[in-house]
Amino acid sequence: MGSWVTYGLGTENQNLPGFITICPTLAHGGVKNWSSAFLPATYQGTPLGNAAVAAKQAQIEYIKNDFLSRKVQRKQVDFLNDLNRMHQEETGPNQILNDRIGSFELAFRMQEEVPEIQDISGETEATMKMYGLDEEKTADFGRQCLMARRFAERGVRFIQVSHSDQKVQWDQHGNLLEGHGKNAKEVDKPIAGLLKDLKQRGLLNDTLVIWGGEFGRTPTAQGKNGRDHNPEGFTMWLAGGGVKSGFKYGATDEFGYYAAKDKMHIHDFHATLLHLLGMDHEKLTYRYAGRDFRLTDIAGHVAHGILA
Fold first, then answer.
1. Which residues, including other chains, have CB under 8 Å from residue 223's CB and lie 6 or more apart?
2. What are phi and psi of 150, to 5 degrees?
3. Does the residue 92 lie in any domain?
4. Cα(140)–Cα(49) distance, rounded to whole angstroms?
5. Does residue 227 form part of some domain?
6. Which pLDDT score is estimated for 241?
7. Which of 76, 279, 290, 306 could cross-link 274 (Cys pair, CB 3.0–4.6 Å)?
């Protein structure tokens, strides 16, 4: 989704990627989760650390060069660009090569801007507390949320944050009450802090915040007080960015198992998100292998009921 949004909207800051993922998990697909697939590589996500690294230590890989001055690095990039363009003149137009040239240029420019964004020493104590950076259980995810706001302020179009405890995951097939209780305590305050911060800075109306996963949990027990996967009916929430507040859309059956009212297929969800971001899902296409592809394939309807 991040790649399609970046493809559709472009970037507001030429010194930063249009799509950044903060502390993503390397499991369950790893880099494929933020790759651009058949879209040009310039639209793929750029990872900042990973789930196994504390947010405080998370860095974009190779963002810093302690051995060469910027002047020397600039000469290196120019030399590489010259070689790539010479190759392109001989072989003809090549999107992959264009993306490679762009990646080298972006990597060079990021060296100045990213460290400044990651330096949160200028944030007020009140802001730090609002995100829970003063508490051990909320500090890590709180920093991710704070970084998300700072990247959004600098024009990054799509920012993903991940809460993925390596030992106590959200995929609770056992001890759900204990595991989800722990995880909820770690994310609740940072999420509230992010929404409050965006609102008081006048950014919430222009920022769409989404919280969710790829499936929910069954209403029936599994193992030792756990729950199995349930893709048939589950909850996600949205805030800001043109959606109604204090409102719920859709409902499951009486057992909480299947979606029963105002069902939202993933294509409908994507169509609605693109609409909220100012794009028509039927017109946002990319031609690949002789066919015009859409994020919503050949389906999808905007859920007008959630629009403010």
1. 173, 174
2. -65, -40
3. yes
4. 12
5. no
6. 94
7. 279
Q: Report residue 13: phi and psi, to 5°.
A: -140, 110
Residue-range definition of the domain harbouring residue 60: 1-164
Length of the chain as a residue count: 308
Q: Is 194 exposed, middle or buried (0-12, 13-18, 19+ CB in 10 A)?
A: buried
| 296: its two tokens | 């919503």
Cβ atoms of residues 157 and 9 within 8 Å = yes
Structural domain includes residue 106: yes
pLDDT tens readout for residues 243-296: 999 999 999 999 999 999 999 999 999 999 999 999 999 999 999 999 999 999
The residues, ordered by sequence, that sit 6+ positions from 34 with a Cβ below 8 Å of its Cβ are 2, 3, 19, 21, 24, 44, 45, 47, 160
Q: What is the mean pLDDT of the chain?
A: 93
State how many domains the chain has: 1
What do you get for the CA distance between the two ends of the chain, in Å?
A: 22
What are the residue ranges in the chain where pLDDT is below 50?
Answer: none
pLDDT tens for 25-40 read 888 888 999 999 999 9
Q: Does some domain include residue 292?
A: no
DSSP summary character for residue 70: H
pTM of the model: 0.91
Side chain identity, residue 87 = H
